[in-house]
Amino acid sequence: MTDKKEKTGAEKVGVVIVGHVDHGKSTLIGRLLHDTDSLMDGKFEEVQASCKRRNVPFEWSFLLDAFQAERDQAVTIDTTQIWFKSKKRPYVIIDAPGHREFLKNMISGASFADAAILVVDAAEGVREQTKRHAYILHLLGLRQVVVAINKMDSVGYAEKRFNEVKGEVTEYLSGINIVPQAIIPIAAREGVNIATQSDKMPWHKGFSLLEQLDTFSPAAPPVEKPLRFPVQDVYRFDGRRIIVGRITSGVVRKGDTLLFSPSNRSATVTSIEKWNAPHDILSAQAGESIGITLDQPIYAARGDVASHAEQAPMLTHDFRANIFWLGKEPLRAGKRYKIKLATAEATVTVQSVDRVIDTGDLARTEKDFVAVNEMAVVTFHSRETVALDPFADNRDTGRVVIIEHQDVVGGGIVNMDGLADLRALRQATQENLTAVDHLLTAHDRAVRNGHRGMVVWLTGLSGAGKSTLAMRVEHALHTKGLQTYVLDGDNVRRGLNADLSFSTKDRSENIRRIGEVAALMADAGLIVITAFISPFLVDRRAARVAAGGSFHEVYVKADLDTCEKRDPKGLYKKARSGAIDDFTGISSPYEPPETPELVVDTAACDVDDCVGMIVDHVLENAQELLQKNYKEAAAER
Amino acid sequence: MQDHLDELESKTIYILREAYNRIKPLGMLWSIGKDSTALLWCIRKAFYGRVPFPMIQLDTGMEEDEVYEFRDQLVKEWGFELKIEQCPPEEEMDQTLPPATRAAARKTEGLKNLLAREKYKGIIVGIRRDEQSMRAKERVFSPRRFDGTWNYKDQPAEFWDQYKTDFPEDTHVRIHPILHWREIDIWRYTQRENIPIVPLYLSRNGMRFRSLGEKNITFPIKSDASTIEEIIAELEVTKTSERAGRSMDSETEDSFERLRQSGYM
Fold it and tell me: Which are the contacts of A39, defined by CB distance < 8 A and separation ≥ 6?
């Protein structure tokens, strides 16, 4: 190991220095470089001369602020990197601008770090930018954090003041799940507690800052996590198809069967390819740029993620992300963006801005847009299926960057709590189908009934007319000889879902069970009409997935005023008086369908017309498909 | 287990493959020095022995003889496409620039001519952050206006290995695949991979070139390092900066900034 290190050099640790403007970040960096004797000859003199030319006192920040504009205005505009060595190892220091307006540059720098020093002025204590930067460290997933309480000389090296600031910092950090490895009192300008322990503060029993840094380690690639190999490109230079990319987690071995998501195709690795490799490569791991060849010519393209089948990423259309927003135009619900997730790209719509976070007091703010430099929790909907992981499970496949007008305008880490994994749903559905269809096929049932099974899913506000329409449509279809059934609150809540409350979670489960039951009934050959508000896209999408191709979403549309005037069950009145919590339309949102199969506007059309539209839609689809099947079957014979 | 050099190489290969996938047409500036030659080696690794875009030399006619010899030898051995762009004469440069900076600016102008003619959308350049404090502030994918100027006050956000790869029509992008390497890494890698170098880097009569540029504006340093191993040992302890022998860096405080802002590498 030692031998190898001598040849390749010791692993460096990237350290980002963050904190409020003028709390002493640059001075600290200058000190670290000076006290470890890492400055090149003439550099100190060059800075001296440059300060003199501008008639300002000696300024360490000039080491890093190389631009004329930065020196002239004494402000760090962009991030930079500079090297120094301790006795133990090399470091690359990342200087991050403190000003709010350069947040994009701060993040560009901090994203490279293995560890962070959060600098806090002992006299000023925790300030706005201290909190914002700490919050970003949390979003970037940095776990190795040391807090340096700087300018201790300005408070007479007083332990009491140190403890006050320490308390303030600890309280904020614990709110965002950061546990600093150490909190160290320093005086950067004086060199106190920087490279060596100082006798100025005998009450401080811990390490100096540099000694603390030496306990950190470079962030190792996640070799022990499940395999993720995002496909970067496919080369055909020598007739072979080489699928190239960098492994972001786990290990791939020659002979492994890989599943490509979201396309869901599998093939076996016949070789791992690196140019000029001295011998046959049997395995490769997280961090390596490789190529692979496969035993079958499956269609795998840039954007697919290869994994092992048993530990595959989630598949979804909907995901939530904790984001930081850098765009000059605010992010708004309903707006469309491009996202990049590993090597994949997708077009997404902002489904909802769930909350905007005030990084000062971590309070939620209710508003439907996110302004520049704000942090928020946002739910996205993607037209295409995307393969991803929750950030907590896997870093690189669990974070997205957001693009607008060709620019990166934000980034976020994925959280899938409460959202469906379509892979699990699909698998469950497939298992159902094989069980039911052993001897009889859906076609056999359709022939017997004269029509195929279907789920006609009515969704809309309370009072929009779902129940009325459901009953009338069923009656009309029954009269025409079709096999039908209506699922509504009355027949479901009494038995199947009698154990469920009206909590958010149970309401979601209510819809999930209805979706599954409707799917089974449709599979049995029935036209199933459901009449539930089902306000959330995610829940309805799960129902659609459960029913496979036989799901028809009908948006029963009526504006809130109309519904509230109708108020057939007196529920709006109760909700307005506060007697009902989370009432859709009043105190809880309704997410209208994006691409429903049919829209009936009960505010604009009379009931007969609406019934007619739905009946026509059902007849057309349930019977036309059947006729097509007959034709295909006849053609085959 | 990947070691330090493997990690640097893997990241460089990733960047090269991103560039090749996202940006067309692509070319690389090959100065024939140690950095861009190590980068050329990484290109062969990334594309399985091929060099799928042209190497470009911005030639001022002022390189040392050994540099031209080495160039012709390597093209023959490795078999890649080399385009030689003759740079305009010094008289046509901005005369307010100090003399060495003015000489260096010839390459900027040569590059502009090349871009105007060949319409490259991406230019790969082998610069490193630790060379120079202006380069330390660079992005990996760094947009330039078509006249080559660098809007360093408003650089794109770049994090999580996601690069800006879409640009307006009148823009080209500089791609910096070895921005994260240090001088000593280049030498360790050159040694490990047995990559050929111009012999001027090795000491003769107590002098060697630490950084290789045109003979009118680059000077050798005092050194007895006559093997790569000795160069590495020298770098472990040196207190002299790499570009100390490059006069255009330090003629005035802002000379290098002015060069880079107007499109220098």
Answer: A33, A63, B239
Tell the burial category of B17 from Cβ atoms under 10 Å away from its Cβ (0-12, 13-18, 19+): buried
Cβ-based contacts of B44 with chain A (< 8 Å): 275-276
Run of H or E residues at A370: strand A369-370
CA geometry: angle A397, A402, A405, nearest 5 deg: 145
Confidence of residue A238 (pLDDT cuts 50, 70, 90): confident
Q: Tell me, what CATH number does A23's domain have?
A: 3.40.50.300
Mean pLDDT over residues A19-26, rounded?
Answer: 89
**Residue A527 placed within a domain:** yes
B77 touches chain A (CB under 8 A): no
- A259 falls in which pLDDT band (50, 70, 90)? very high
Number of Cβ within a 10 Å radius of residue A53: 10
Probe site for chain B from A231, A240, A408 (most B CB atoms < 10 A): A408
CATH number for region B4-181+252-261: 3.40.50.620
What are the two backbone dihedrals, phi and then psi, of residue A411, each rounded to the nearest 5 degrees?
-150, 155
Number of domains in chain A: 4
Q: Is residue A220 part of a domain?
A: no
Instruction: Report the pLDDT value the prediction gives residue A3, as an integer from 0 to 100.
Output: 41
The rounded mean pLDDT for chain A is 88
Per the CB < 8 Å rule, is A104 touching B157? yes
pLDDT tens-place string over residues A566-607: 888 888 988 888 888 788 888 888 888 988 999 999 988 899
Q: State the CB neighbour count (10 A cutoff) for residue A468.
A: 16
β-sheet bridge partners, residue A307? A259
**Cross-chain residue pair B157–A8, CB shorter than 8 Å:** no
A126: nearest Cα among A76, A183, A73, A60? A183
Yes or no, beta carbons of B159 and A82 under 8 Å apart: no
Q: What is the DSSP letter of A392?
A: T
Minimal-distance CA residue of chain B relative to A70: B153
Amino acid A388: pLDDT: 97
